[in-house]
Specification:
mainly alpha, elongated
């Protein structure tokens, strides 16, 4: 684990360091001592900004969840045919995931051992249900293949999107839109009903 010596730091830089340590060590395997060493500051300096590591976890998963839920309120997610809306939400979900990669990675790794983790899991389920409802509406509109099991399609879609945190490693100048388009085409070319 890399230790970063900071003469000045902010709650944002502390959060960024904490997320990396949580991902490397696991939330349960991370102590305030680990966080202090990784940030290059004293534990008391950390406590100056947060009550403890669970507050850091809450801030991190909230950042990921806020980004995901914001997508559901964008015009492309609320206007048009259901199939167009679910494609839009899928594309934007990939873009949020890539833009907030460490935060979404952490969100996808919480297991429910703390109050914050249970809250995050419940919010993830709520997001999943809202996207599943869009898929159901698209099927009801006749825009998805009739032989597709919507529950299975929903799980496969989320599995494909969420798997990005395991293998995608951004490089300078990476085009997140290109990867988002590829995910949408791979998923919906197989799901759409043919005219």
């Amino acid at each position: 684990m890399t230790t970063v010596r900071r003469d000045t730091y902010t709650p944002e830089t502390l959060l960024s360091v904490a997320v990396q340590v949580f991902i490397e060590r696991g939330y349960d395997g991370t102590s305030m001592e680990h966080l202090s060493k990784a940030a290059g500051i004293s534990k008391s300096s950390i406590y100056h900004h947060v009550a403890g590591k669970e507050e850091l976890l809450l801030r991190a998963v909230s950042r990921a969840l806020d980004g995901l839920f914001a997508v559901l309120d964008e015009p492309g997610a609320v206007r048009g045919r259901a199939v167009e809306r679910v494609e839009y939400v899928t594309r934007r979900t990939v873009e949020v995931l890539l833009g907030e990669l460490p935060y979404v990675t952490l969100l996808l790794r919480v297991r429910g051992n703390t109050r914050t983790e249970r809250w995050a899991l419940e919010r993830r389920r709520e997001f999943d249900h809202r996207v599943a409802d869009l898929l159901k509406a698209a099927a009801a509109d006749g825009d998805l293949r009739a032989d597709v099991d919507i529950r299975l399609a929903t799980r496969l879609l989320f599995g494909m999107v969420n798997s990005l945190v395991e293998w995608y490693r951004p490089h300078p100048g990476a085009d997140h839109g290109q990867l988002a388009d590829a995910v949408v085409h791979m998923a919906f070319d197989g799901l759409r009903a043919t005219p």
